[in-house]
């Protein structure tokens, strides 16, 4: 239901007041889905949809900072997306690069790349790594940029690295297998050392994870929103947080 501007603002404030800080998620994962559909419905080039989605990311991070949510993982570009038409992919990578520059200008955002940099053009992978280095000391929100990311690939990469480390330490495959457990493998993921997401949000009405944080989301709560990502409003976000706060997390039990 669409509300007039003033009524919408009052409703947004009412939802915000209903949220208890202690019940907010620490880490949120977001599948920023619906940019292409938004452009198609607007009769605009696909690149305009991706740019509108990038602008929404910066707005969304502002909301998170207002609420004290300190970690966000954004699904920007999957390994499957790498199969899109060359022009669209080039446009999207350029928009991602520009978004990284804008995040760097904020000086309060700590950026961490999540994905396989070898799949990306050098200019983009270099920019991700340079930004991660330059923002390492930032004390604001921690943003994981999932670019060239695939959940299955992440697990395969983790196993490969674990095996290489074991071999370098003189262990046999059997000895490596004997020491392997869930906690150890987690130390080889792209998100090593970080808490798993408490809440995963997907926009555009799709109700699947599409390989996003396959390992880390085992006990996450999921929230699916009908709004396309560029149309995602603060009140939609607040509703997701309210829904999360009302749930009783069971962690598999």
From TrEMBL:
Residue spans crossing the bilayer: none
GO biological process: polyprenol biosynthetic process
CDD domains registered for this protein in UniProt: Cis_IPPS (cd00475)
Cofactor, how bound (note): Binds 2 magnesium ions per subunit.
Keywords: Magnesium, Metal-binding, Transferase
Positions with a binding annotation for substrate: 34-38, 50, 78-80, 84, 202, 208-210
InterPro entries: UPP_synth-like, UPP_synth-like_CS, UPP_synth-like_sf
Positions bound to Mg(2+): 33, 221
GO terms, molecular function: ditrans,polycis-polyprenyl diphosphate synthase [(2E,6E)-farnesyl diphosphate specific] activity; magnesium ion binding; Z-farnesyl diphosphate synthase activity
Catalytic residues in the record: 33, 81 (proton acceptor)
GO cellular component, one term: plasma membrane
Cofactor: Mg(2+)
EC number(s) given by UniProt: 2.5.1.-
Family matches, as Pfam families: Prenyltransf
PANTHER family (UniProt xref): DEHYDRODOLICHYL DIPHOSPHATE SYNTHASE COMPLEX SUBUNIT DHDDS, DEHYDRODOLICHYL DIPHOSPHATE SYNTHASE FAMILY MEMBER
Biological function: Catalyzes the condensation of isopentenyl diphosphate (IPP) with allylic pyrophosphates generating different type of terpenoids.
Family in the record: Belongs to the UPP synthase family. Z-FPP synthase subfamily.
Self-association state and partner proteins as the record states: Homodimer.
Name the UniProt record assigns to this protein: Isoprenyl transferase
Originating organism: Paeniglutamicibacter cryotolerans
């Amino acid at each position: 239901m669409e509300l007039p501007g003033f009524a919408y603002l009052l409703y947004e404030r009412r939802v915000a007041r209903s949220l208890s800080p202690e019940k907010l998620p620490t880490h949120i994962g977001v599948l920023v889905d619906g940019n292409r559909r938004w452009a198609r419905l607007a009769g605009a080039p696909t690149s305009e949809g991706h740019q509108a989605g990038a602008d929404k990311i910066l707005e969304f991070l502002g909301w998170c900072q207002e609420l004290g949510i300190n970690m966000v993982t954004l699904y920007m570009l999957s390994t499957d997306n790498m199969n899109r038409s060359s022009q669209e992919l080039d446009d999207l990578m350029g928009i991602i690069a520009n978004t990284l520059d804008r995040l760097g200008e904020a000086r309060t955002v700590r950026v961490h790349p999540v994905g396989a940099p070898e799949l990306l053009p050098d200019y983009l992978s270099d920019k991700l790594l340079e930004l991660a280095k330059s923002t390492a000391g930032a004390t604001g929100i921690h943003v994981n940029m999932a670019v060239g990311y695939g959940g299955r690939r992440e697990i395969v990469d983790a196993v490969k690295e674990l095996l290489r480390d074991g071999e370098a330490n003189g262990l046999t495959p059997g000895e490596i297998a004997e020491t392997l457990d869930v906690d150890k493998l987690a130390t080889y993921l792209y998100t090593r050392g970080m808490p798993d997401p408490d809440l995963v949000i997907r926009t555009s009405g799709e109700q699947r994870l599409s390989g996003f944080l396959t390992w880390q989301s085992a006990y996450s709560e999921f929230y699916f929103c009908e709004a396309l990502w560029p149309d995602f409003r603060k009140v939609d976000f607040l509703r997701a947080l309210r829904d999360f706060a009302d749930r009783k997390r069971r962690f598999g039990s």
